[in-house]
Every structure is written in structure tokens, then in C-alpha cells.
């Protein structure tokens, strides 16, 4: 009786280190270009800024939608990491929230709004997973501050994220570097207004992320 020969285990092909570096450079350059010029920034200019050829860009991202989606996921992942860092802080819960909000501004989350309004699939599994992770973590950061009696309880995750996006967007007619010097100053004014006890009653109800999605303004 012969014993069946088992097939040799398949080797997992892993991207080379230089290929991974090229991909990271493309995503970083795209994030900068989309922030400065919007989601319609020329792909050849993105390749030039990344220091790669057009063929390398298209080998990693076959079309604009794939690149935009990767940039959006990248920003959302970095935002989630900032929330995790805030949750890891063991001191003042509101201070942790402040650190998170300022980190969000540095990630240029305001650039996500026009990108998610483009033609690509907003319900792609990668986007859904990144979105759910961010929403859950931000809710936890805010919940800790509410429990500590430091954050007013009538503010929702949607309220916070849309305010950060709006305040971190350069004013019309100004370039990004010049507008940046006002961002953290104005964010701190916002944060002071979020502290409990509240000095006034907000009109309407707390905004949820779901409501923002329905309006097409949330990532």
C-alpha cells in the first residue's frame, strides 16, 4: 500500500521592503496632495512627490478610487491610534480628550470630507471597518470624560468630529501652512466650551455619526 504524497506547503509571498516603502511614500504624498488640492489632484504629481514612477503608483493603486480609499483608511487608522493613546492615559480624562482632539487636527481629518464625497464606494469593507473602529474609540474617550464629570453630556461623537473637521480646515482664500497657526488655538476654544458644567443649553440634540453619514458629511 502506497502512502499518498502530501503536497509541499505553499510559500507565502511577502512584499519586499522596498515595495512597502514605495507604497507608504505614495500614500503619504497622496495625503498631502489631497489635503492641498482636493481628491482630484493629478496622479502623476503624486507619483513625482513620492519619488516613484507612474508605473509604480499604478502597480499599487490601479485607479484613483483605490488610492483615495487607502488615504482615507490611513487617516482613520491614525486617528484611531490617537484615540487609543488617549485611552491609555491614566490621568485627567478631559486632558486625554484634549490630546486626542489636537492629534486629530494634525491628521488633517478635514480633508476626508471632500474625499468621501467623491465617486468611490463608501461602503467598502476596509472603510466600514476603519470607520467602526474610530467611532467606537472616540465614544470611549468621550465617555470617560463624561463619567468623570468633566465633559458636558449633551455632546455626541458626531458633534465633536464635525467641529474638529470644520475648525481644522483652512479658511477660504488662505493656504494650508498659514491657516495652520490658528487651528490649535481655535480647537482649544472649542474644548473649553465642551467642559462641564455647561454654561448654556445647546439647541437640538446631540449629533450622532449616523446622522452625519445621512448628510454625506462624515467619513
Automatic annotation (TrEMBL):
Molecular function in Gene Ontology: DNA-binding transcription factor activity; transcription cis-regulatory region binding
Residues annotated as domain HTH tetR-type: 20-79
Superkingdom of the source species: Bacteria
DNA-binding region: 42-61
The entry's keywords: DNA-binding, Transcription, Transcription regulation
Keyword Transcription: yes
Gene3D superfamilies xref list: Tetracycline Repressor, domain 2
Alphabetical list of Pfam families matching this protein: TetR_C_43, TetR_N
SUPFAM superfamilies reported in the protein's UniProt record: Homeodomain-like, Tetracyclin repressor-like, C-terminal domain
Protein name listed in UniProt: TetR family transcriptional regulator
Amino acid at each position: 500500500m502506497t502512502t499518498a504524497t502530501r503536497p509541499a506547503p505553499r510559500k507565502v509571498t511577502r512584499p519586499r521592503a522596498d515595495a512597502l516603502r514605495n507604497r507608504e511614500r505614495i500614500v503619504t504624498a497622496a495625503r498631502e496632495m489631497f489635503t492641498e488640492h482636493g481628491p482630484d489632484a493629478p496622479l502623476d504629481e503624486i507619483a513625482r512627490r513620492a519619488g516613484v514612477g507612474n508605473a509604480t503608483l499604478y502597480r499599487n493603486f490601479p485607479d484613483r478610487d483605490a488610492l483615495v480609499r487607502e488615504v482615507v483608511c490611513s487617516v482613520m487608522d491614525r486617528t484611531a491610534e490617537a484615540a487609543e493613546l488617549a485611552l491609555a492615559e491614566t490621568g485627567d480624562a478631559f486632558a486625554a480628550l484634549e490630546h486626542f482632539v489636537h492629534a486629530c487636527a494634525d491628521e488633517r481629518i478635514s480633508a476626508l470630507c471632500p474625499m468621501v464625497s467623491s465617486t468611490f464606494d463608501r461602503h467598502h469593507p476596509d472603510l466600514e471597518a476603519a470607520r467602526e473602529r474610530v467611532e467606537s474609540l472616540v465614544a470611549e474617550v468621550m465617555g470617560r470624560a463624561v463619567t468623570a464629570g468633566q465633559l458636558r453630556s449633551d455632546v455626541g461623537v458626531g458633534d465633536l468630529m464635525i467641529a474638529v473637521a470644520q475648525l481644522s480646515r483652512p479658511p477660504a482664500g488662505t493656504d494650508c501652512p498659514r491657516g495652520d497657526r490658528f487651528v490649535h488655538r481655535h480647537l482649544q476654544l472649542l474644548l473649553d466650551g465642551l467642559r462641564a458644567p455647561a454654561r448654556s443649553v445647546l439647541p437640538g440634540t446631540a449629533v450622532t455619526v449616523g446622522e452625519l453619514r445621512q448628510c454625506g458629511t462624515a467619513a
